[in-house]
Structures
1.
Amino acid sequence: MGTDVGGAVAGVLARLYEREKATGFPSLSGAVVEARVPLTQAVVDDLLLAGRPADPAKRGAVQRLRLLLLDTDRIALEITVRAFLFNVPLRFEATVHPEVRVPSDPRLHLTLTSGGLSELALNLPQLPDWIQVEGRQVALDLGLLLRRGGLDWLIPLVRVCRANVRPGVLYWDLALQIDDRKDTTNGELPR
Amino acid sequence: MANFLDKYLANDLRDFAGLQVRGSVPVKQEVLNEILAEVLKQGQSDAAATEATPAAAAPPANLDPKALLRHVKNAQVRAEDGRLVLDFEVRIDG
């Protein structure tokens, strides 16, 4: 048997995961998980690059997008947009509202503290759709990003979601819970 | 995204230093029995296998379960209300 036991267990777990994900994790009801996930500036840069074409000609209007983790609950958004023949760099600083109201409103809310509001308004149509702007209020739609990454099944499980920005690191404090429910399956696993 | 995962794994997850996950996960006996059945089935097929049988697909090069297990700081199982509960803590130290 040897090392194949690990492969067999991994195979079962992978199948279980897919099955449970599709049905709301009924076999794991009562599970509670708390996590602190640090995302360093390098990881945030990677995440923003993921899925974007390497070729600048294929990037559309937004040529570059960077989220800088400045200080306690302070970030900067650097965007380079193509306007006519030129690339125009824009920089906005914002305070972060740490609480994310998941599952009802899975968005990280920011308030712009510096940067040209008129410049942002002018370039609104070119911003990615997960960045939503209303006056000085900006919302980063994490729900939309999770859906695109195939991870939206996580949203209904989240009970606490807080973002804590420190210099160079964005900490996510999360609590997930799968509600305990009465077993009506008579011992049968969902298929 | 897969490229990034490979990079983080190759770097021994140092990009995520400070990560902490802890929790309690109840596991139904049906799930445990399913895992056991699969392990037994695998063992029986191994015993019947000949040298000509191709080996199972290898895991991704950077995915080393032993290396990942280093980050598991605590794991224990307890029985509660007719089910097993797995308590665990995972931490990536800086």
2.
Amino acid sequence: MNHPALAFRNLRRRPARSVLTALGVALAVGSFITLYGLSRSVQENVQQSFEERGTDLTVRRRGVAEPFGGTMPQTIIPEIAKIPGVAAVSGQLLSFAATDNDDHVLAFGWAADSFYWDTVPLLEGGLPKPDEPKAALIGKDIARTLDKHVGDDITLLGEKFHIVGVTNYSSIINRNAVIVELADLQEVTFRSGAVTFISVKLDQPGDSGEADRISNAIESLGQFTVTGSGGALQNDSLIGLLSAVSSAMAWIALLMGVLMVLNTLLMAVLERTREIGILSAVGWSKQRIMGALVIEGFILSALGSAAGIVIGVAGSRLLSAIPAIGRYIAVRPTPGLIAATAVAAIILGILGSLYPAWVATRASPADALERA
Amino acid sequence: MSIPLVDSKPLVALDHVSHSFDNGRIVALKDVSLAIHEGDSLAIVGASGSGKSTLILLLCGIRVPITGRVLWKGNPVTDAQAWTDLRRSEIGIVFQEFNLFPTITARENIEVAMFGTGRGSRERRRRAEAALDTVGLSARATHLPHELSGGERQRVAIARSIINDPALILADEPTGNLDSVNAAAILDLLFEIKRARGATLVLVTHEPSYAERCARQIRIKDGNVYEQQRANRARKEAM
């Protein structure tokens, strides 16, 4: 018999309440892992997508709210290419495009001379030939989803494109993207001469001072924002809003879990006033009585956290299984996020048990013992 | 009338202690001085609500006097933590209501009183089993309180009260919830333990025949404490 065993027995006294409280903590932890994982995965997946294509700097229109809405004139590309230290520049137009079967895909438009073409990993087929009209490469996942193969046609915004190759990218965004010539995508999206992102390769990509100098030079050309490849959506207000909402919901869920622990233990303290008086009568100090309650809080939040990890991982997989999400974002909570959430939930659970524990020690043992 | 504090150092003593409730409207004890020496057996009698339980709670520091002092081995004890330490090591309390924890077994109920004594879990278990043996309940060690009879529960409570070898056993109407057969058995057990361990016993009771088994009797009436004359049988029990 020890303190944890005693605490466990006390929790078993009201099994339904204890299980429901632990379940509440589990849902809170699971929600936190899923929602926080979602908001972080958006950034990570975009970063992976750019990194896979060998980008050092990404140029965007400054102050644009939506990720793919802000465009820049294609004419800026030669200006950037003139900046010393710039190895290559490529414009890219992005668009969510209606496709076959009332589905949507993410379409990339690359200029014919883009360095992107040099690094395309092909699973089957080949690259579009120069001046080959309406040719498309499709990612392996979207090929499987839409059951498309080399030689088939794919519709983008009502225009048919001929599939010439299937790419073998590893990042989820690239695996689900359709790549066409920039001019073709500009034509079907009515964005003639416009690009969404400009990717820059540097002569010395590891030199941060050089990267800063070039970034400043690009930004001095007009209303542009330059970031590293991972920061392409760093200042995007929609992504920021998504992150803020997800984070807020995640924290609210976690705090509700803590309140459940607090409420459960407070009820337990009120029910067990007499027993707390007996503990005092047999020589338990206030600190020991507080400790016993805190251990109950720890057990509830630890069990809830353990179950919450399972719920969080399962929830993330479920989110990824929803086509509208899973086609562009692989919601994968990192071990660091899982561990940090579990530890935070346990610490918050312990903090939530402090008030009931304090209430327990405030009760007069005499009043408690004389209570019938 | 109060019983004057004797010169020699008693185990526990009240020195001009008064206590009241409801902002002084209900007076429980008036300027009471009482000395209880090591090895004493003292019965506290009086009508319901006369202040018997209040006196017991004052003797173990669970209640604090409004005025006056409580002394342990001649030293005034005013610190709550000091009283907690005394209840853990020197004072065992038996209640009328048994006051066992319902979710743990008889043996574990006894072990709970050893938390904070520095004994390891094996030692706690061994001593709890020995205490159960002392009260004749070895076979019921793993039973939950609701699986025990009233008499058995009170035996467990007694075992819990003596687990740390207290110098003072305070028994607040320990037979109040028992039938006469069990009550007599519990009383026998308490006196047997008192004799075997040389402990001091303070017994609150309504039953004159039980009170007579103690070497001393005091009666509480209107907040005052009156010493009763000793009975021959009591002298025998106290020896």
